[in-house]
Write a structure and sequence with these properties.
Elements lengths: L1 H23 L4 H12 L11 H36 L4 H4 L1
Helix pairs in contact: 1-2, 1-3
């Protein structure tokens, strides 16, 4: 369930980036997918950006992508950590 939620979050973030690259930076669809995937994956942009608006968008999208990464890692690791804490939990009754 958490992996599906993380996948949906990644897909939404990627779709937002693709649409913005296409409309703000005036890239075609394939280049928009490439650029959004690279930024969301933590890499640097491939194509040069010409307009100031496109450059400002990339700054915001890169920061947003780091937050998405942190959120996805939290969503995926939360059930694992929760189960681990239950496994190692010791009650007061167990000590006596």
């Amino acid at each position: 369930m958490s992996v599906a939620l993380a996948g949906i979050l990644i897909a939404v973030a990627l779709l937002m980036g693709i649409m913005a690259y296409h409309h703000i930076a005036q890239f075609d669809w394939i280049d928009s997918i490439l650029e959004a995937s690279m930024i969301l994956g933590g890499m640097e942009p491939v194509n040069p950006l010409v307009t100031t608006g496109a450059k400002m968008f990339v700054v915001g999208y890169a920061l947003f992508s780091r937050l998405v990464f942190i959120a996805v890692m939290g969503i995926v690791q939360a059930p694992i950590t929760h189960r681990m804490l239950h496994t190692f939990h010791v009650d007061d009754e167990d000590i006596k």
